[in-house]
Amino acid sequence: MSARNAYRSVGGLALATAFILLLPLLAEWAWDLADFVIAGALIFGTGLTYVLAARKAGNIAYRAAVGVALAAAFMLVWINLAVGVIGSEDNLANSMYVGVLAVGIIGAIVARFRPRGMVRALLATALAQASVAGIALIFGLGSPWSPPAEILALNGFFVALFVGSAWLFRYAARRQTPAGAAPEG
After folding, report:
1. pTM attached to this predicted model
2. Which of 18, 159, 162, 178 has its CA 20 to 30 A from that of 97?
3. Domain limits of the chain?
């Protein structure tokens, strides 16, 4: 990507973020300045991460996998900041989700963003997500605000997104390997 295209992408991303933030402003949501700053940083950061990751890939499956993983991470953070997954947003049990995201980020770095390694990283992220749900259920965290069915359903949704992203990375790895060549390990 040339420098000019990079600036255009970042500028477009900043503009899109500003337009998205107009929605809660015009709807007169009860947000203060900190809410707008955090939302803007989250939206812009997720978009920028996608642009940087997707520009390396000519493979649509890889781009879709990155998009699904980032969308899942974005929603996980957004929901935790807004209302919380386990109990309310103030419940310290929700901080376990930082570990889920750390597994994904560290896994992606270790994998050097290669498709086969990303499969493992996203499966580990899904396992971490499921582990948080298990811990919450075993120790009764989130009661009475979050019944077990709600914790299972919401965490199951995120597990499905992370597994779906892993599946797309697997497909991208298959598309990337030339015929007769040893697959990337």
Report:
1. 0.90
2. 18
3. 1-55, 59-185
